[in-house]
């Protein structure tokens, strides 16, 4: 009788596991097909509102000619406390550099990813202080994920160079010069005309990834064992999904030329933590050079990465692997 009971429980467990696995597989396939046609970038452009005059400002698009030298895109979700310090540091650097070099024009685009705190108020305070030509706010309305927030900011920016950076200020903003110099050096090698490099830089696809790989040994020594285990496992999955070549895909400090951003962010489909991995995959597909550069980085309290984030990463990379490798997700090379 006891043997029969255990046999029945085992059969039931196997049936439940099989049904769960089958259901998960079906869900993955359905979601992969749902994202097959990436028309999100064709949606209506957001409207920038000038809080000083209450007038609406026309929104640019990534296929429009550049109007600024550099755009900084800052995704923000519930960053009321950390955003002011990071923005103060960023604006001080940008103003100081612009004061020394009048050709250095800039904009900061804060993308509020459906925050429930005072992030929107903080962001608009900076628009009032620095004017809408220099600081702009995009409101997503509801939380859609860091990847989607950055995609939105990239598609509606005006820079020849576009930098994504986190709202917590974990990477020093002046490190953008490291990425900028390397991009300019590669662009110079690729330049086909004798024109001013600062004028043609926007037309040469190049990507520069800020990297914390040089800090890995110290991080391994100070982190809990399970976080190191998860990190190593994540690196393995990234290697399988996007291939080798980039040691740190997840640093939130990355720079793109306008031509590179145009190719990448009109194709990207992942909306949350793994969009960085998709950027690596798409860059390799297009043959866009990826430069990895060590940056100054410090861990800021208030990280939003959790176990749920890890599960979401695995989910997104499964979608990406199926979508691209099976050919469900098509890649567009639209130029205008």
Automatic annotation (TrEMBL):
Its EC number is 2.4.1.117. Pfam families: Glycos_transf_2. Residues 71-183 form the Glycosyltransferase 2-like domain. Keywords: Endoplasmic reticulum, Glycosyltransferase, Membrane, Signal-anchor, Transferase, Transmembrane, Transmembrane helix. Pathway: Protein modification; protein glycosylation. This is dolichyl-phosphate beta-glucosyltransferase. One of its GO terms (biological process) is protein N-linked glycosylation. One of its GO terms (molecular function) is dolichyl-phosphate beta-glucosyltransferase activity. SUPFAM superfamilies: Nucleotide-diphospho-sugar transferases (SSF53448). The chain crosses the membrane at residues 12-30. Belongs to the glycosyltransferase 2 family. It is found in: Endoplasmic reticulum membrane. It is a single-pass membrane protein. Its main location: endoplasmic reticulum. InterPro entries: DPG_synthase, Glyco_trans_2-like, Nucleotide-diphossugar_trans. GO terms for cellular component: endoplasmic reticulum membrane. It catalyses: a di-trans,poly-cis-dolichyl phosphate + UDP-alpha-D-glucose = a di-trans,poly-cis-dolichyl beta-D-glucosyl phosphate + UDP. It comes from Mikania micrantha.
């Amino acid at each position: 009788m006891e043997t029969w009971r255990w046999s029945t429980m085992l059969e039931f467990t196997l049936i439940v596991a099989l049904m769960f696995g089958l259901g998960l597989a079906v869900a993955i396939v359905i979601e992969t097909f749902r994202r097959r046609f990436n028309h999100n970038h064709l949606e209506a452009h957001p409207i920038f509102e000038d809080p000083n005059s209450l007038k609406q400002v026309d929104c640019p698009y990534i296929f429009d000619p550049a109007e600024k030298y550099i755009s900084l895109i800052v995704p923000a979700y519930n960053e009321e406390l950390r955003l002011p310090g990071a923005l103060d540091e960023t604006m001080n650097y940008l103003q100081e550099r612009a004061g020394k070099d009048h050709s250095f024009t800039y904009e900061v685009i804060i993308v509020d990813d459906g925050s429930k705190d005072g992030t929107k108020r903080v962001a608009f305070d900076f628009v009032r202080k620095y004017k809408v030509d220099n600081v702009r706010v995009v409101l997503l309305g509801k939380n859609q994920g860091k990847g989607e927030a950055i995609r939105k900011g990239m598609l509606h920016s005006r820079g020849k160079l576009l930098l994504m950076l986190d709202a917590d200020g974990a990477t020093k903003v002046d490190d953008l010069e490291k990425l900028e110099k390397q991009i300019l050096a590669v662009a110079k090698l690729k330049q086909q005309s004798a024109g001013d490099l600062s004028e043609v830089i926007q037309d040469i696809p190049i990507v520069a990834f800020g990297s914390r790989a040089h800090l890995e040994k110290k991080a391994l020594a100070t982190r809990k064992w399970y976080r190191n285990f998860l990190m190593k496992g994540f690196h393995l999955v990234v290697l399988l999904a996007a291939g080798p070549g980039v040691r740190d895909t997840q640093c939130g400090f990355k720079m793109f030329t306008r031509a590179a951003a145009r190719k990448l962010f009109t194709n990207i489909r992942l909306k949350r933590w793994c969009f960085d991995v998709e950027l690596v995959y798409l860059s390799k597909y297009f043959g866009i050079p990826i430069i990895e550069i060590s940056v100054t980085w410090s861990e800021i309290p208030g990280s939003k990465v959790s176990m749920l984030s890890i599960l979401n990463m695995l989910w997104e990379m499964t979608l990406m692997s199926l979508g691209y490798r099976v050919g469900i997700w098509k890649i567009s090379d639209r130029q205008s």
